[in-house]
Amino acid sequence: MPERPDCHEPALALLRDVLGWSVVTGAGLATERESASDPWLPGRLEAALLKVNSGLAPSAARQAIVALRQCAVPDLLESNEAMHTLLSRWVTVEEPAKTPGQPPLRRSVRFFDFEHPANNDFLVVDEFPLRGPQRERRFDLVLFVNGLPLGVIECKDPADSRGLEKGIGDLLDYQSPRHGAPRLFETIHFCIALARHQARFGTVDTSLAHYAPWKSLRPFTETELTEALGRPPTPQDELLASLCHREQFLDFLRGFAAFERQGGRLVKKLARYQQWEAVRDAAGRVRDTGRGPLSLRGGIVWHTQGSGKSLTMLWLALCLRRAVDLENPTLVIVTDRSDLDRQIATTFRNCGFENPQPAETVRHLGEMLHGPTGQTILTTIQKFQDGLMQRGRRVRLPLCKGGNVIVLIDEAHRTEYGVFNARLREALPDACFIAFTGTPIVKTLAKFGSYIHRYTMPRSVEDGATVPILYESRLPDLAVWGKRLDPIFEEEFAHLSEDQREKIKKREVTMRRVAEAEDRIEMIARDLVHHYRANFEPDGFKGQVATVSQKAAARYYEALERLMPGQVALLISDPPKGDEKLWELKRRFADESAIIDQFLHESPKKLALMVVADKYLTGFDAPVERVLYLDKPLQEHNLLQAIARVNRPCPELGKEWGLVVDYWGVAGFLDQALEGLDEDIDPGEIMTERLSDEAHARLSACLRDLAACFPEKLDRKQIEPWLEAIEAPDRRAIFLARYRDFYRAIEQLLPDPRALDFLPELAWYRRVRKEAEAAFQESNLSIPDCSARVRQLIDRHVLGDEVIPLLKAIDILGDNFAKEIDKLRSPRAKAMRMEHAIRHTISVKLHEDPAFFESLRERLERIISQRKESRLDDVAEFRLFGELARDMRERDQQARSHGVNAEQLPFFHAIQQALGSEEGKVSEGPAPDVVKLTRTILEDLGQHVVVDWDTKEEVMRDMRRAIKRRLRLDYSIPQEAIEPLVTSLMDLARVHLKR
Description:
Blueprint: H1 3-18, E1 22-25, H2 42-52, H3 58-69, H4 76-88, E2 91-95, E3 105-109, E4 122-131, E5 136-145, E6 148-155, H5 163-174, E7 190-194, E8 199-202, H6 222-229, H7 235-243, H8 246-255, E9 257-262, E10 265-270, H9 273-287, E11 299-303, H10 309-322, E12 330-335, H11 338-350, E13 356-358, H12 362-369, E14 376-380, H13 383-386, E15 389-390, E16 393-394, E17 405-409, H14 419-427, E18 432-437, H15 442-448, E19 451-455, H16 457-463, E20 469-473, H17 486-492, H18 498-508, H19 511-515, H20 518-535, E21 542-547, H21 550-563, E22 568-571, H22 580-588, H23 592-601, E23 609-612, E24 625-631, H24 636-643, E25 658-662, H25 670-675, H26 683-686, E26 687-689, H27 693-707, H28 720-725, H29 729-749, H30 759-775, H31 788-797, H32 817-822, H33 827-845, H34 850-868, H35 874-889, H36 891-898, H37 905-916, H38 930-942, H39 953-970, H40 975-992
Helix pairs in contact: 1-7, 2-3, 9-10, 20-21, 27-29, 29-30, 33-34, 33-35, 34-35, 37-38, 37-40, 38-39, 39-40
């Protein structure tokens, strides 16, 4: 198989030769396992426990193993969480007292030696077989530490365009409670899919869309890794070298996972590379005594909006709490808003962080700081302003002088750098301050010191952690910034004297008043609704409308509600006292949490647009939001925070980018907003002009690249030559990648009318893609088939080009097979179509009758090999494929010729194959009657079949005994042939003897 030399073996070599893992084959572990369905290596585990826990009694080690096994429950992720808790910490057991008559001693037992990684047993198993509920599954590489499986690696052919997606699909299938082998995943931490030039990692229950790349080489440099490998490293090498480095592998297990409940569903999250690097760097700086006292070891973590700062803070808190040399510090988590305080507290509690305590008042905060060390305290920075006052006078006494206090500050670009920051430092003069921000400004650097770690918006887009942000300017005549108001004013007040006009202008005419004008808002609202419905509503995306004031927000809501009744919500802070109209609207949308939940999870028909003034314009995470309509002056960090509302990925809806529609003219301030960042970032890397000649040129280039996948001047009246051009898997991979780029380029240019000129080409190549999917019997997991909006445009502008594939995915065993093949004109097309149909049918049917379909697969590969060696032409190849297909279709007739029925045939084939092999030949006496043996074994099995028998270990054990007894006693079949035959027959029973 191509993945073996190109992906599997390089991965194995790196783990063994560079990282120092021991290697053994799955077959070589047979004697170490209690059964074929048990993934653990209990002998290694017990030996490791005795080694890691000095002086531990063997009985106590066995107690620890039993306690770990008892964590297993029917829900896989619940089991994984319970086991992870024990594996990352310890389990308490009882040891016999050394003095007779004394009570047993309670002792904490660790499963790993985290402080001394070399004291653990690191083992990679090549081709690890494991019996699941229905059949045996075989894993490419499984990583064991101290006898427990912690990582599973799936390797795929690098030439397969969908190799990585197939690998992830297999990893998910292996976790299935019926078709997979879920027991392996009860302790698994990393699930890794490799295809040499692509590599992604996830964990238990991670969906395809959330598998992520790993781009850190630590602890290696690129030069060091190149020297160790003897060649330039591939992305596969880079991921394995860092994630599977033995010391770091245990570190990831111990401190970089979080189990969080979202909407009642348990989700396991792992740190991405930027989060892990930031935590390691921040903890390293805090522990660096060479920098001086603790108060001088702080700095800034700059991670762009949407990159998971709350979890980064959680993992840093865990890391600091575990650091022995920091002597159990007190951690103070500071935010500037109550909702952020609740959000971080919820994140900490949901992820199992022990006892985070909210400070109700500054007095309460002071009491906790003077209490025992090792607490985690949550507070808002406003308490340092509100509480440090007595009888109208400010109290200057520190809350905590000296001590071991580390302060983690969220959103440090906002209030934390002003007066509040001064009060905070006055209250905690000797603390270490680590500031987190997504949009740092000059004052942030001045107050908190140098950067500890940076993860900018361009890097997050490159990694896929966020999506690109596009920019579009609408109705420039109505934009406020940069427009002269004098002509409007002069016309309106022409009847007044110049002095009178100047006085009125100074008093009345402001940009805000112009922006609040009802006629202007009405005009923009009509344009906005048309734009939203044409571009975003068909695909299920939502939008946000940011306005200059609460008054403007209310007018926008009223205008939009008339145009989109029932689809608009208004969320604002408390209005001024006495403004009853605003208060009435505020009360109408008082249940903000329910509205946010509706915005995040329900159809746009229920809620499509959310109108805001300031609230929810920052710190609001909504992946379904794809467009921000901006009619508000924003500068510096406020602008960067606002536009980041649309950069969250939403792969389930195919979100490729977010859009900022500018009705004010704020894009002119983007370069100013970036000036304060100590990083050379071009404004074009933050927001890209959506309607531009560059986008049109890129689209043209994408079309040229796509067309180059095929010979020139191919006739579009026949589809077969187009399919023949991409028959080779590597050619098909290139075509699919270029199709994706072409489609995205069209989406990026729309609604520019120039994009319409490319729709006929998109319609044609979309048809080629769908025909290829049918012809090669593939369903691609990663290529979008156009958004609903683009499909509507194709239907409207490309007449007579309905995409109905000429070829349907056909079943060789179906009645229409010959008719579908006859549609094709050339022998090459027929042979190609036949080959892929046969290959697909074999892969689907293989588990039903492995002996029969495996023999057909061998014949298929021989035919293909002969054609590649030019020993067959297209006609001869097609004829041989036809014979193979005929044998496949006449399988039932073969059953009758052997004297068995269709149900008995797979069992007959399995027994015939086993007894016909050299290993399984009966050494003495006449050959057994295979037909009679088949019928007898099926009768024996039938006596044990009950409802859901394949989930009942006792029933399956009785069935295996009955088969063995029949083979051994009645037919005198040698012992070495019995075990593999029993395994094959039980596999078939799970497929064919359901009840």
